[in-house]
Write a structure and sequence with these properties.
mainly alpha, two-stranded antiparallel ribbon, globular
Length: about 140
């Protein structure tokens, strides 16, 4: 059974009550013991395949695959995120001109629609990358 919820200016959202047990199971992963860190990769890997597929729906994964399979692009992304999304530090660590780095990040934005200088988009990119690996 599902019900559609809508508000003025808010997208319609479908609540599927058959998914509640899955969502409760997911919630248990985030209830870590005090002082224990939750590893998002473990959480994502433990998700049912249907949920993982749902997370990737709405994204053109073939565009992401081109980037995920390009070692130099992924090294660029990993270094950029590892440097706290700092352009100058990333360029220095990669021995790359700042403009080259900006070009690569722009290329990712053009092909995926995600701007890695935006934290939410960077997290989305990381999540999609891990889902792609699990595929």
């Amino acid at each position: 059974m599902s019900i559609n919820l809508s508000d003025d200016g808010v997208e319609k959202e479908t609540v599927n009550y058959q998914r509640v047990p899955d969502m409760l199971e997911i919630n248990r992963f985030f209830e870590a013991e005090e002082g224990k860190k939750v590893n998002y990769r473990e959480v994502v890997a433990a998700l049912p395949k249907s949920v993982r597929e749902m997370l990737t729906s709405g994204f053109e994964m073939k565009n992401f695959a081109k980037i995920f399979e390009d070692q130099s692009m992924m090294q660029t992304v990993e270094t950029y995120l590892g440097c706290g999304m700092n352009i100058s530090e990333t360029a220095r660590r990669l021995y790359m001109h700042r403009n080259t780095l900006m070009y690569r990040l722009g290329n990712i934005r053009k092909n995926t629609g995600l701007d890695l200088s935006n934290f939410a988009d960077a997290v989305t990119f990381e999540l999609l990358h891990y889902l792609y690996i699990l595929k």
